[in-house]
Amino acid sequence: MAAPGADARSYRFTPTIEVSTRNAILRPTVSAHKPAASEAHATVSVEDVRVDGAAKDTSRFTMTARNDSTTPLSDFTISAGRTKGQAQVGTLTCDLTAFGGKVVSATGPAENLTVSSGTAKVPQGKDITCQVDLTGVVGRNRVKAALTTGNQTFSSDYVNHRPVIEVETHPTDLLVEAAPTGTYEVEVGYTVTFTNTTDANGSSSDIVLRPGVPAGFSLKSVTGTGTPWWVGPDNYAIQDDGSLSLRTGDSLNAHSSTTMTFTNTYQVNAEAVTEETWKSLGTCDPKDPSKGLTTRIDLAGSEGGTEAGTHTICTPVTRTGN
User: Fold this and answer.
1) Mean pLDDT value across residues 119-128
2) What Å distances lie between residue 181 and 184, 217, 266, 282, 292, CA to CA?
3) DSSP track, 53-70
């Protein structure tokens, strides 16, 4: 076989394959063509770029195109176009000044942006570098970064998966009734739901439960259902500050949700509850945690699309006999 050399060459290979189980002989043909080293050819690659403080639905990547031909690369276009997802190309900028050209750019948002080389001529082995900024990055996205010269296109795909997890918390009871006298227990229930609203797999978050404990009440226990299998009874130990840290972060498939239900059990010494406290317990006010029987839920957040934050659940307590 001749050495590849710099000229164009075509190769054809026809092996003989004996298939003993079928008592047959196969002779497939494989063909390959090597273009001349002077013909246009480029290697395109992409690399993600992290931008501190950038909006969460934006993304940036660099595109690098290397001229693999022995002939200077000229009269080409560079494009960035969405092939999957919802992302829009915000800007495409290429600095061609090192090759006799200009800084060329295109601005969207659009599904596809293209810039032209102008007077630039890129020598063999040299790299063109472009910056691409995306907006509206939600779910699974793919953007093709491409260099086109003549009738040939060389490209690479930039892939960005950004799940978005919505969190809802709700009490399970409209109100809780409590006797005006005696010592007894009351229960307050609430749910925490993580919903993946996108087509990209994500994850839920670890949580910290912080039940409120009014005067005359003591927190006896917290239990839960619907949590990941590794959260067992031992994990519901109440800390010295009255909180519970639960390792509830778990994978959450695209367009799916999971709901956890928790129950706080309080022991009430009715005689120790003042008239003012009874009055405060009877109503809920999102701006005033002293109203009602509340639980603060702190979300640690996750790289899988759950934002860190705080939710507050409130259930009014009605004194029977009033």
Assistant:
1) 97
2) 9, 13, 15, 16, 19
3) T--TT-EEEEEEEEE-SS
> Dihedral of CA 132/134/138/144: which sign?
negative
pLDDT of residue 34: 46
Q: Distance between CA 198 and CA 160 in Å, rounded?
A: 13
Q: Which residues contact 272 (CB under 8 A, 6 or more apart)?
A: 215, 216
- 3-class DSSP state of 235: helix
- C-beta separation of 318 from 295 below 8 A: no
**DSSP letter assigned to residue 233:** G
pTM, two decimal places: 0.84
The angle formed by the CA atoms of residues 219, 284 and 295, to the nearest 5 degrees, is 35
pLDDT tens digits for range 220-277: 999 999 999 999 999 999 999 999 999 999 999 999 999 999 999 999 999 999 999 9
Phi-psi region of 97 (alpha: psi -120 to 50; beta: other; left: phi over 0): alpha
The β-bridge relationship of strands 9-13 and 17-19 is unpaired
Q: List pLDDT tens digits, range 18-49.
A: 766 667 777 677 766 546 667 889 999 999 99
**What residues does 195 pair with on adjacent strands?**
166, 257
> Among residues of the chain, what percentage have pLDDT more than 90?
85
CA-based max dimension of the chain: 102
Q: Is the pLDDT reported for residue 13 higher than 70?
A: no
Give the C-alpha separation, 119 to 100, whole Å.
6
